[in-house]
Amino acid sequence: MKERKVVHRAHYNNHLVEVIDKGDERSLVFAGNVVQSSMSIKTPYSLSLSYTRYMMAALLLNEFPEKVLVVGLGAGSLLRFINYHFPHCLIDAIDNSAHVINLSRKYFNLPDRPEISIHCCDGYDFLSALSSEQTYDLILVDAFDANGMSATVYRPDFFDLCGDHLKQGGIISLNLWSGNSERLGEVKEDIGSRFASIVEIPVPKRGNVICLGRNDKLIWSMLRKNRSDLDRLSDRFSINFKAIVNICLKSNLNFFQRLSHRFSEPARNH
Fold first, then answer.
1. Mean pLDDT in each 10-residue stretch from start to end of the chain (270 residues)?
2. What CATH class has 44-245?
3. Rounded to whole angstroms, what are the CA distances from 103 to 12, 29, 106, 112?
């Protein structure tokens, strides 16, 4: 059995926050048992938690992002991954907790280079202050608080701002939580109202549901990757994209059947 070692323990805003090592795995843990993020100490750039790998399904649509926004830095899993695979990428990362940012810098190998900017603020406030010219290839949203999906982030006007600040062909990837089905339904409806096309990808054996959105209707092209492309991308990023595509197809089957039927209909004579 792997030894459990508490590296850091403190209370912040009346909540217990710990950094715990167990073998090669270091985790940021809230309230004694809620794992916010995990990192391999030997390979800190890898994505330890499955839902973070599913969030990167966006790479099926753009495998060379040049500018990325991360809303919800946490312990920095997505930031380390992007920095490792795209060392020249411009990255803005946001977290509304200075305490979490400081812990991540001290214990979770946050990369430090001029192209990376870490902002301590609310995600909605950050996007509201951006000029219309500031746009992103990829926006990753993983902003949770003690009550679940952050109420200031997972709301219609925030999704409007995200859509406004996506480049042409840009992708938003959101981590949603299925624990509150009513809240999940509301958020999915809000996302669907803002973006021209979306796909949902439930993460196996977890309560996470990943939702990808685009301002155009070409998001379904991610499912047309051939086997060799999926193998190449899986090897490059150490993510099983075949499994993600299969789950995506099953979860969105009715939609893609309707789409396929529409495109296969013979042209009508006028």
1. 88 89 94 88 96 96 96 96 97 95 96 95 96 96 87 95 96 94 93 93 94 90 88 97 92 58 42
2. alpha beta
3. 12, 11, 5, 14
